[in-house]
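Hi, does anyone understand the following?
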Amino acid sequence: MPALVERAAQQHVERWAAAAGFSEPQFSVTVVPGTRTLSACNQGVTVQAADTRLPSRMRFIAVCSGAGGWRYEFIVRAQVSARIAVMANDLAAGKVLADEDVLLERHDIAAIADAVSDPQDAVGLSSKRALRAGEVVRKTLLAAPTLIKRGEPVRIVARRDEIEVSMGGEAMDAGARGDTVRVRNANGTVLRARVTGAGTVEPVAAPVTANSPSE
């Protein structure tokens, strides 16, 4: 029975590592011995994953169908390591990661669900908190940097075919690349625009409203 569970757990960890794109993953799987004596199963046993969020502690359920069948839960622990993104330098909160800040290094990832597999996936993002050299780079610790701040001047660029038209404006919202924000153009019209770069946006919809005389 434990052999069936171990095989199912190995297959899961292999798929998990492949889907995450981890470089050179290595792992071993251990099924924690149970205390319950299981009767023979004439119908054949199937194994189902119950909780596989962290390879360091997974739950699988072995099921024997039919009359006199049973269900039994197994705890499975996996040791997994791979070459992942690790901080090469200390970085203050809010700073943008550069090439020299991240390196690829083998690390234990069995208890980390959101490790970054490729350092280039972290470059250009900002840290939500201070990061220390040697720390594993995690997706939940990164965010797209704010390229536009509320009240700052922006350049509104509209493109169609090979024609480009631009004018000045003011950001009414803060935003990162790809965010949709409100901007007020030089004529006082408020429109929605997508952040395309530092201080640059492109219109994405018709004007929201226009300034009233009181504004």
Q: What stands out?
A: Confidence is low (pLDDT under 50) at residues 210-215. The two ends are 75 Å apart (CA to CA). The first strand starts at residue 23 and ends at 31. Residues 161 and 202 are 14 Å apart (CA to CA).
